[in-house]
Amino acid sequence: MSKFRSFSLAALLLAASAGATSAEVVGKVGVDWIGNDIVVEAVSDPEVKGVTCHVTYFDRSFIDRFKNGNWFEDPSNNSIACRQTGPIEIGNIDLSRDGNEVFREGMSLIWKTLVVNRIYDKKNDTLIYLAHSRELTDGSAKMSISTIPLYGQNVVWKNGKPQ
């Protein structure tokens, strides 16, 4: 993990809510000779056992930061893919249209955050995971979604399935 990302992550952890989960880096692919990387992290949903999301983001190198003069942030580009990786057990999830924030990680010193939200689509019995960048000043239209259909699955709802 780059020193910038470590500092950014440490600052973020101070402000993070108790409900957000952490991620594990499972891949890192170099994309050019100046040290820019695409990082792949595995994120487990703390309230939905048996689901793992893989989130990707661009990690700018020191050389790229120096060359472009933008020291304190990574691009908003990210992607997400979520799959069932075990028996699904759903705990206390927010059933509103906003859903729950499952994960967040700093993409800049203080201004930009990569966020993963979980939304339950009751009509289609599907969990939706939305990856997007939250920015303090300007929102970003760059986003990615992944879905976990629950139809026909043996799903355990700790608080009973919503009616």
What is the helix fraction of residues, given as a range?
Answer: 10-25%
What's the main sheet like? Answer: 5 strands, mixed
- Main-sheet strand order equals 1-2-3-4-9
The tally of helices reads 2
Order of helices and strands: HEEEHEEEEEE
Q: End-to-end span in angstroms? A: 44 Å
Give the strand content.
Answer: over 45%
- Rg (CA only): 17 Å
Low-confidence sequence ranges: 1-19
The counted number of beta strands is 9
- The overall pLDDT, averaged over residues, is 78
Structural class: mainly beta
Tell the overall outline: elongated
Provide structural commentary.
By secondary structure, the protein is mostly beta strands. The protein has helices at residues 3-15, 62-68; strands at 23-30, 37-44, 48-59, 78-90, 100-106, 112-121, 126-135, 143-149, 156-157. The strands form two sheets. The protein has a five-stranded mixed beta sheet, with no helix packed on it. A four-stranded antiparallel beta sheet has the order 5-6-7-8. Strand 7 (126-135) and strand 8 (143-149) form a beta hairpin. The N and C termini lie far apart (44 Å). The model is unreliable at 1-19 (pLDDT under 50).
